Amino acid sequence: MDSMTFVLFGATGDLAKRKIYPALFNLYLNQKLPKSFSVIGVGREQLSDVELRSRVTDSLYTFSRHLINDKSKKEEFIKKFQYCQLDVTNTEGYKKLLEHVQQNEKDHNIAENRMFYLSVAPEFFEVIALNIKKSGLGSTDGWKRLIIEKPFGHDLKSAQELNEKLSKSFEEEEIYRIDHYLGKPMVQNLEALTFANPVLQSLWNNRFIANVQITASEIVGVEERAGYYDKAGAIRDMVQNHMLQLVMMTSMHLPKQISESGIRNEKRKVMKSLRTLNRDTVGVHVVRGQYGPGEINEKFVPSYREEPGVEASSQTDTFIAARLWIDNSFWDGVPFYIRTGKRMMEKETKIVIEFKNPLKDSYTSEMEKVKPNLLTININPNEGVSLQLNSKNPTNGEMEPIKVDFAASKQDVPEAYELLLFDALYGDSTFFAHWDEVELSWRWVEPILEAFKENRVPLHSYSAGSMGPDAAHQLLEEDGFKWW
Ligand code: BG6
């Protein structure tokens, strides 16, 4: 891989500490970083290189997947870090950053390949991207790339405005929009699962599939993020990005040639076929909820409205369930159900494919115990795949469901950020959100936002520790299904 400089804006922030430093370190240990590279941490605080390195060390001890058995490796790694203090709104300061980067490139014989990672609040995306261009940081002999994280806007309009501004400094191919769900190993595996298994590939359509269910439930509540979350709600925080990406990844049909553009094209097709809701139909297909008080793991937790920083009359959704229709020849008539929420019974992200059972009506009474075939893709916290079949128990001759299971060993599974950073460093944007996907997702979500704002959809309360409001169960019952 080419030598490069990794310029990290927000070097003293939480994401850097929890995710970015450990991911870089694990890539380093696995020899997946270039021989020659530097990390220039940028932040507002006054820090020395030594102080930054000590913070990086702390983060590795706390969050790294691989244990630090070999201290010399860790020492080698942290020597790659330098710090540059900068107020990101001050255009003048970027000159100093440019000099710093250039001097370092010269000293360490690093080519002018620059990765800019904006691990900062979204209101700074624009000003940083602009100053990268203005200062000359973005004029390189090699490549330049920009990594940003959601939120990409607050609605369709603000997302479009943001994109327009970013595109003044970076080309679309240079922008890597992280959706960390696309970095989860089992999400990346979806493509292989269908591509490498003709059995699944041939079943992946409305002839054989009855419905698809995508769940991302969380135990945590709003935590210390009320300032952001109370304006976003689950619809913006999880549905517009992660959940719709999971819908695209599950339902897309593999292109003849598996390539970045081929996959993007297929994902775009899915979003274009997603049936649009209008304000009046939102309430028929979308359930919104907010957690009340309850008990989780034998511990009492307060309601959302009692959380610090949340208004006592907040109407923000902490739970969404929805029925989606993909109007194309593969999925015509197959409902896709999604649900996500905070303060639910368990932390679980999974995709369940329920297969049709055309023979059901001809079964004798003994066969009534037959359960549907289910393919479950477990994404988080455990990675694995399981297939539910029906079989007679050899000891008592009773028909019962059995599971054919695969579960990955936890320690060997790379973190999402590791996979994503690796891809970005190699210039592979397959598992990043393309602007078209972001824009089409906002378009789909827009009528839901409007309907919520106009109070056209009831806000159901659900007990913390439950699996969401009853209405979310009724949504499937109406179609003769239930959540698995
Ligand atoms: C983030 C959301 O994008 O995803 C959080 O902002 C949420 O609210 C998190 O908790 C869930 O991610 P994961 O990987 O724990 O499922």
From TrEMBL:
Transmembrane regions: none
EC category: oxidoreductase
Assigned keywords, A-Z: Carbohydrate metabolism, Glucose metabolism, NADP, Oxidoreductase
Keyword NADP in record: yes
Source organism, top-level taxon: Bacteria
InterPro entries: G6P_DH (IPR001282), G6P_DH_C (IPR022675), G6P_DH_NAD-bd (IPR022674), NAD(P)-bd_dom_sf (IPR036291)
Annotated Gene3D superfamilies: Dihydrodipicolinate Reductase, domain 2 (3.30.360.10), NAD(P)-binding Rossmann-like Domain (3.40.50.720)
Binding site for substrate: 180, 184, 218, 237, 342, 347
Catalytic residue positions: 242 (proton acceptor)
Entry's family note: Belongs to the glucose-6-phosphate dehydrogenase family.
Summary of the function given for this chain in its UniProt record: Catalyzes the oxidation of glucose 6-phosphate to 6-phosphogluconolactone.
Full protein name: Glucose-6-phosphate 1-dehydrogenase
UniProt organism field: Priestia flexa
